[in-house]
Amino acid sequence: MSEEHIYDLVIIGGGPGGLSAGIYAMRAALKSVLIEKGLPGGQVAMSAEVENYPSYEHIGGSELSEKFAQHAKSYGLEMITREVKALLPGLDYHRVQLDNGDVLKTHAVILATGGSPRKLNIPGEDGSITAKGCPTVPCATAFFSETRPLSSSAAATPRPKKGSISSPGCAVKSTSCIDGINYGPG
To answer: How far apart are the first and last CA of the chain?
Structure first.
């Protein structure tokens, strides 16, 4: 493969972080490609509504994701819809192997693969849970919980409300989510 087939940058992941990296890479005139296995926008694309994102009080997740992708495309960012199967580091260049067997060569890689919600493996959690208003967000502490002071400083820590499903830093009212069954503490 000749030198012109080596990318300056391969970005793995097409969520907000990956798309932002792609925008800045293109503005810096780097020969770049973004690889995303699903739809551009990542996890936010599955959100019915996104609140308080800078410049938007309310916007649909798919609409916001489309705006991210259009912004990146306006700079000419190449996007490939494939899954990365292997990342092979090297001295002269790195190789990124895709699920169709293609191998991309690059001088740098940004991993912006994001995450996906973990399931609780409880009754009622079959995919219909989100249709009943139960969010699967990493954290929405101020909206879903009360706070208590840690010290005399301004710091506060979330305290789950009674009857809520909680993880560190988060609390979600369970009775509005899973057919009125309380899976939370107390």
So the answer is: 63
> Cβ neighbours of residue 176 under 8 Å, at least 6 residues apart?
132, 133, 134
Paired with 87 in beta bridges are: 96
Contact 133, 177 (CB under 8 A): yes
Q: What is the pLDDT of residues 37-63, one digit of tens each?
A: 988 988 888 888 888 888 888 899 999
User: What integer is the mean pLDDT of 23-27?
Assistant: 97
Q: Which two tokens stand for residue 26?
A: 């293109």
Closest CA to 161 of 153, 132, 176: 176
CB-CB neighbours of 85 under 10 Å: 13
Q: Are 46 and 61 in contact (CB under 8 A)?
A: yes
Each residue of 69-98: pLDDT tens digit?
A: 999 999 999 999 999 999 999 999 999 999
- Between CA 123 and CA 55 the distance in angstroms is 39
Listed in sequence order, the residues at least 6 apart from 185 whose beta carbon sits closer than 8 Å to its beta carbon are 160, 164, 166
Tokens matching residue 144: 């879903």
Structure tokens at 168: 């560190």
